[in-house]
Design brief:
By secondary structure, the protein is of the alpha+beta class. Helix content is 28%, strand content 24%. α1 runs antiparallel to α2. The longest helix has 15 residues. The structure holds coenzyme A (COA).
Amino acid sequence: MTEPEPALVPGQLPGGLTLRRPTSADHPRLQVALAEWWGGLGGEAGALQRQLLVPRLFLQHFADTSFLVERPDGTLHAFLIGFLSQTDPRTAYIHFVGVCPQGRRDGIGRALYDRFFATARTAGRSQVRCITSPDNRDSIAYHTRMGFRLEPGDRFDDRGVPVHEDYDGPGLDRVSFVREV
Ligand SMILES: CC(C)(COP(=O)(O)OP(=O)(O)OC[C@H]1O[C@@H](n2cnc3c(N)ncnc32)[C@H](O)[C@@H]1OP(=O)(O)O)[C@@H](O)C(=O)NCCC(=O)NCCS
């Protein structure tokens, strides 16, 4: 099957960065990013879990609600994988987001989320949901800063964060976020 040309997304990003829709051909480098951009969270098992959480199907079937940011030389800078819930017509869902380590705290995560929120609103969605691992403190700080509420869990961790125990299977605890858009 011939790959379609990636669709550019209008709008400026700083530093000559380009925003476009991902395609199936981006899968190998997203797999590298999923292994390398999380600061070794969860060790090798964590890297494999993240890679398996972003199979190629997301790039084949959810590209219209996902984004990829490239540097002027074409290398990968950031990405967001999201979709509109088929089951709950109020909800849009952010499945994964990553900004390369050297590109952080520069507004790119916010820019990607703002575009996803706009996509969700245009599609008539009123809330955005996502989950993260309780160990991912940066993600919890970022989502809180981005206006997400932490949903009540089964227990609080040592920092008072509500945790859903075994949410995605035995030992796979998660923190759940929601934000109105
Ligand atoms: C989480 C992540 C996507 C944030 O991206 P980013 O481009 O650095 O975020 P931004 O610079 O747009 O920051 C947006 C806001 O969040 C805040 N923020 C970002 N990271 C933060 C952190 N680690 N601690 C506290 N606040 C943080 C920023 O200060 C900013 O607030 P402001 O605009 O009000 O000043 C990025 O750190 C990352 O890729 N981490 C590794 C992957 C990951 O954990 N993904 C999330 C789970 S799937």
